[in-house]
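Give me the fold.
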Amino acid sequence: MRTNPIVRNAISHYKKNELILASKLYSDILSNEISEAAYYKMLERMCKNNELTKVAKGIYCIPNISKYGVVLPSENEIVNAFTKNNTGITIGYTMYNQLRLTTQIPKNIEILSSSLENMSRKIRNVQIKQVRLHYSEKVKNMINCLEVLQNFYTIQDLNHHYFIEFTKDIAANYDTETFQIVHAEL
């Protein structure tokens, strides 16, 4: 049996290794064109034919095939998929490291994202949690602030100089309205 050209056309707009959130693609584009059961059956067939690769439950990509076999999306590509266009933010040690508060490199990456349709999802070493926010710079800074203050005593190898600079910046840019928005969702 062959795949529906509508599905094939919708998937053709994705680049190799770009994550395809199956339920989002279906609800945004294909729900009026094809039944959900037929859609998922077609995705399954495309995986069998190596046209798609299943990255996690409900998440696919067009495989990047090298001479060594299928190359799955990297952790950076996964992080970018859930944080691009102000749809998410990294938290935990990835964030602490970006803020230069520690030199620790995390084994697991944590993300808060509004582009995830489930409550949480783990893709390899990336843990994604759904938090419905528009991640503007103010919101990202507030999340950083709350995350650092909440975990201050447990951050390994904390650089106190950068922490003091970070808290000065927090104090200078604190916004009660943004705090209330973020606090309501977290």
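The first helix runs from residue 5 to 12.
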